[in-house]
Write a structure and sequence with these properties.
single chain; 67 residues; mainly alpha; 434 Repressor (Amino-terminal Domain); two-stranded antiparallel sheet; 5 helices; DNA binding; DNA-binding protein
Length: 67
C-alpha cells in the first residue's frame, strides 16, 4: 500500500518524531510505514489521517494485489 505521509508531513512542516508522538507510535514505525515496509493497522491509519486532517483514502493508496 502506498501512502502520502512524507508529502503531507512536509506540507504540514512536521518531523517523523512529531508525527510519531501525535499518533502514539515510535519514529521507527513512521519510517517503516512511510517507506512501505509496514502497513499500519486500521486504527493507526485512522490516527495518522486525523493528524493530517484528512481521510484514510487521502493518505493511503490501496493497490490491487498489494496485500
Amino acid at each position: 500500500m502506498k501512502n502520502r505521509i512524507r508529502e503531507l508531513r512536509k506540507l504540514k512542516k512536521i518531523t517523523q518524531e512529531e508525527l510519531s508522538k501525535q499518533v502514539g507510535v515510535s519514529r521507527q514505525s513512521i519510517i517503516a510505514i512511510e517507506s512501505g515496509k509496514f502497513n499500519p493497522s486500521l486504527e493507526l491509519a485512522y490516527n495518522i489521517s486525523k493528524a493530517f486532517n484528512s481521510t484514510i483514502e487521502e493518505v493511503f493508496i490501496f493497490e490491487e494485489g498489494s496485500m
